[in-house]
């Protein structure tokens, strides 16, 4: 820990530095790969929408012996042709979700499940969700997402600056797109809990990005007057100064979410937790990555196109340039700069 804290101190003071901004093409290429992977997953498989969004029937059976295979057999015997979604909920419940069914077929599925699990019909919780209600939920989810992005962009523009707000929104869209693509790749159902997870990771990603941008603003407050470093160098210093903090907070946030996903949903079979925990787990990792590698790189690239920043880069390059006419010229220029010239040594007598 002492070595890690010592490294953090050297990064903060600029004694040790990782060139994040100078290698932005690598980060863009890596992000591009995952974006293409997400596009492929969405095009081939698409999102598996839950019945809350597309409508359908849900049957939850309270039984001491939950079984996925028995539930599937019951649905097939009732005459449902589509493939149902069957999940274990805890240790005493099994949930069956089907497409929208007419009342007669709905009663047939309920009776078949009661017969298979040797329970009464009262032990089966039945819910019927129409497609119109599912469309309303979808519309509200999209309104919430776009409204969130709009309000955040206005706030960041007022609190920081417009190009920082734009860079942060680019990183957020990047996070959501990759998370949705991976969600489609693994085939999990998209439920209201998933939307809550998406909105949560948006807030976390922005929180981490704002911390980095606040340090950037401090480092670039009088950058044109100093002329000691370019804007990209100042941004890179800010990322190095905040990377230890970002890593610590991300690890602390990811560990409990990983416990919910792998232990709660995976080992204990809490199916209601996997929708939320998977979105959080992927989003936290991608959000941390984008706040360090993507958002600062986009900001630096935008600001370096400004005439003032281009002029600053030329002044910094001229200030740090050295003569290239040999080592003697370098030594001579250093001596003159220090106010000293070559010394005339007296001749020694008695030697020829």
From TrEMBL:
What is the protein's major site of localization? membrane
Here the segments flagged for biased composition (Low complexity) are 324-337
Cite the Gene3D superfamilies for this sequence.
Answer: Multidrug efflux transporter AcrB transmembrane domain
In terms of domain of life, where is this protein from?
Bacteria
For this entry, list what GO says about its biological process.
Answer: intracellular protein transmembrane transport; protein targeting; protein transport by the Sec complex
What is the documented function of this protein?
Answer: Part of the Sec protein translocase complex. Interacts with the SecYEG preprotein conducting channel. SecDF uses the proton motive force (PMF) to complete protein translocation after the ATP-dependent function of SecA.
Q: Where are the transmembrane segments?
A: 27-47, 141-158, 165-186, 192-213, 251-270, 276-300
Subcellular location field: Cell membrane
Q: Which organism is it from?
A: Actinobacteria bacterium BACL15 MAG-120619-bin91
What is the name of this protein?
A: Protein-export membrane protein SecF
- Keywords associated with the record: Cell membrane, Membrane, Protein transport, Translocation, Transmembrane, Transmembrane helix, Transport
Residues covered by region (Disordered): 319-352
Residues forming the Protein export membrane protein SecD/SecF C-terminal domain are: 113-304
GO MF annotations in UniProt: protein-transporting ATPase activity
């Amino acid at each position: 820990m002492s070595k890690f804290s010592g490294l953090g101190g050297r990064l903060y003071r600029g004694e040790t530095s990782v060139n994040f901004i100078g290698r932005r093409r690598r980060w863009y290429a890596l992000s591009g790969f995952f974006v293409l992977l997400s596009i492929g997953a969405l095009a081939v498989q698409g999102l598996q929408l839950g019945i809350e969004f597309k409508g359908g029937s849900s049957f939850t059976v309270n039984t001491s012996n939950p079984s996925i295979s028995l539930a599937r057999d019951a649905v097939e015997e009732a005459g449902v042709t589509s493939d149902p979604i069957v999940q274990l909920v805890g240790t005493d419940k099994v949930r069956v979700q089907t497409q929208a069914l007419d009342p007669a077929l709905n009663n047939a599925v309920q009776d078949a499940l009661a017969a298979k699990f040797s329970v009464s019909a009262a032990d089966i919780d039945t819910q019927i969700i129409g497609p119109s209600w599912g469309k309303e939920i979808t519309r509200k989810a999209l309104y919430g997402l776009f409204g969130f992005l709009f309000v955040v962009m206005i706030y960041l523009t007022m609190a920081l600056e417009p190009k920082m707000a734009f860079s942060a929104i680019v990183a957020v869209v990047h996070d959501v797109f990759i998370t949705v693509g991976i969600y489609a790749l693994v085939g999990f159902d998209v439920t209201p809990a998933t939307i809550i997870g998406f909105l949560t990771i948006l807030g976390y990603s922005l929180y981490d990005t704002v911390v980095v941008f606040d340090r950037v603003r401090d480092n670039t407050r009088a950058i044109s007057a100093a002329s000691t470093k370019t804007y990209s160098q100042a941004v890179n210093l800010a990322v190095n100064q905040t990377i230890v903090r970002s890593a610590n907070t991300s690890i602390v946030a990811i560990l409990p979410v990983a416990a919910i996903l792998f232990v709660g949903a995976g080992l204990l079979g809490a199916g209601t937790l996997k929708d939320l925990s998977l979105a959080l787990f992927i989003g936290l990792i991608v959000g941390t990555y984008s706040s360090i590698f993507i958002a600062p790189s986009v900001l630096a690239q935008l600001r370096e196109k400004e005439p003032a920043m281009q002029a600053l880069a030329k002044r910094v390059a001229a200030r740090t340039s050295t003569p290239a006419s040999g080592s003697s010229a370098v030594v001579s220029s250093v001596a003159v700069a220090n106010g000293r010239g070559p010394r005339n040594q007296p001749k020694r007598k008695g030697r020829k």
